[in-house]
């Protein structure tokens, strides 16, 4: 990973990986760069993003990481359009789930605070990626969406634990079982967001938090984050394991084939009895 004080330095070209990772002084800025796909991410991008967060643990200069998406959305989950090519390359559903779980775990385990900056949609595994962050800043018109049930799947990316840890089981069940959008103001009221601000104030709100953390003591930040995670995310590993077991089964099911086809062809799915 690049370790430089220049904001012009990126670790990997966006065209090759679907994201950029730029070190700017004490701040690592990670941006998913697939706006034409609403920042849906494929297997390669998940693996490479996990590498970036794991490498950040070794960079003692970094005090804070900002994770966001280019354009109008944060991340709309796994890119189903990449699945055919991934299958051709021998990438299995187990591998995809392992990559998603590794990324979420790497964000949670990053030794310094991670700030998710959300505009537009955080959907699918994008919800888990966002809520794995320590601080979540969202624009008023953004939303969280666990729409897995609508295509014959179940939540993944640790969402079962991450939503419940912050907002409780009733809201987690509502999001997972009904597959409805949760607008950012409601997410803030439920404790899923640190702050929700008008779109034109989002960057300023994030910058203020970044500046405060970047000026803080690294070791105290590390130990504080560890203590918070140990107190609130005790169920994360079990949730990740359960999600992998369930999702790998569902990804091979006729219901998912029907749900994915219906989504891509913009029609209502008809699931098996």
TrEMBL record:
Q: Which domain of life is it from?
A: Bacteria
Q: Which organism is it from?
A: Nocardia amamiensis
Query: What InterPro entries does this protein map onto?
Result: ClpP/crotonase-like_dom_sf, Enoyl-CoA_hydra/iso, Enoyl-CoA_hydra_C
Identify one Pfam family in the record. Answer: ECH_1
Q: What is this protein called?
A: Enoyl-CoA hydratase/isomerase family protein
The record's similarity note reads: Belongs to the enoyl-CoA hydratase/isomerase family.
């Amino acid at each position: 990973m690049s370790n430089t004080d220049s904001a012009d330095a990126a670790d990997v070209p966006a065209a090759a990986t679907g994201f950029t990772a730029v070190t700017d002084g004490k701040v690592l800025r990670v941006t998913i760069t697939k706006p034409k796909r609403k920042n849906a991410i494929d297997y390669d991008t998940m693996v490479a993003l996990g590498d970036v967060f794991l490498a950040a643990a070794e960079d003692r200069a970094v005090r804070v990481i900002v994770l966001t998406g280019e354009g109008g959305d944060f991340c709309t989950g796994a890119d189903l359009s990449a699945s055919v090519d991934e299958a051709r390359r021998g990438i299995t559903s187990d591998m995809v789930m392992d990559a998603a779980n590794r990324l979420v775990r790497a964000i949670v385990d990053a030794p310094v605070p991670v700030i998710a900056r959300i505009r537009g949609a955080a959907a699918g595994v994008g919800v888990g990626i966002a809520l794995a962050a320590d601080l979540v800043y969202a624009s008023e018109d953004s939303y969280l969406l666990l729409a897995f049930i609508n295509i014959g799947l179940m939540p993944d990316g640790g969402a079962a634990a991450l939503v419940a840890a912050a907002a409780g089981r009733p809201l987690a069940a509502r999001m997972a079982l009904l597959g409805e959008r949760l607008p950012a103001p409601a997410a803030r009221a439920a404790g899923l967001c640190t702050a929700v601000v008008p779109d034109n104030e989002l960057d300023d709100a994030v910058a203020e938090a970044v500046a405060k953390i970047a000026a803080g003591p690294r070791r105290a930040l590390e130990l504080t984050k560890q203590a918070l995670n140990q107190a609130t995310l005790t169920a994360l590993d079990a949730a990740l394991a359960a999600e992998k077991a369930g999702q790998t089964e569902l990804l091979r099911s006729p219901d998912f084939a029907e749900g994915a086809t219906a989504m891509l062809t913009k029609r209502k799915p008809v699931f098996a009895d």
